[in-house]
Design goal:
With 189 residues, the protein is an alpha+beta fold. Helix content is 29%, strand content 31%.
């Protein structure tokens, strides 16, 4: 059986910064909708075509997760249709077993028609950056990776405003990420 949530496309943000998001919304529409309505944001991945259902209920990691946690961490409520056909609104204080089960195993519990997320004020400035470190031979590769590890462990540089990932290839390490702040402060780090 296939159940389409394509019609569930609502994205609204209330005055308390809680986003109400239909179960058929994709990440690109989620981010744009939340920001355009309220200049707010929440942690999520960057692939705009990924649906919110699986992404939010199984984690939802990206560079903003260092500061704001996983998408899953921002869920404050869920409207869900259970296997017995009943519909409930689950929160940390109402239908708590269902609420916690949906945050990690939703596809085994029910069909989420609406998500409620706690949002954050959107950063006023985001810097996207990328560095490529060429690898000439195995000893250079080992030294480069060791330097990347030292960088990642340096608390005077790494804080909740920076998020990054490392992608190795046969010829280089690609390090890319985001910095929530201005370019001058980033370059001073």
């Amino acid at each position: 059986m296939v159940i389409s949530l394509e019609a569930f496309q609502t994205v609204t943000v209330n005055s308390r910064g809680i986003a109400r998001v239909g179960g058929g919304v994709r990440l690109g529409n989620l981010a744009t909708g939340i920001y355009n309505q309220s200049q707010r944001a929440l942690p999520h991945g960057i692939c705009p075509g990924v649906g919110i259902g699986g992404h939010a209920t199984h984690g939802g990691y990206w560079y903003s997760s260092r500061a704001w946690g996983l998408t899953l961490d921002t869920i404050v409520g869920l409207d869900v249709v259970l296997a017995n056909g009943s519909a409930v609104h689950a929160t940390s204080t109402s239908y708590t077993d269902i609420f916690w089960a949906l945050r990690g195993a939703a596809d085994s519990i029910g069909i989420i028609t609406t998500f409620y997320f706690r949002t954050q004020p959107a950063p006023t400035s985001i810097l996207n950056w990328v560095y490529t470190i060429p690898i000439a031979n195995p000893s250079v590769a080992a030294a480069a990776f060791s330097h990347i590890q030292s960088f990642a462990l340096n608390a005077s540089i790494i804080d909740d405003k920076i998020g990054f990932g490392v992608t190795p290839s046969l010829s280089s390490f690609l390090i890319n990420g985001t910095y929530r702040g201005d370019k001058a402060t980033f370059e001073a780090k």
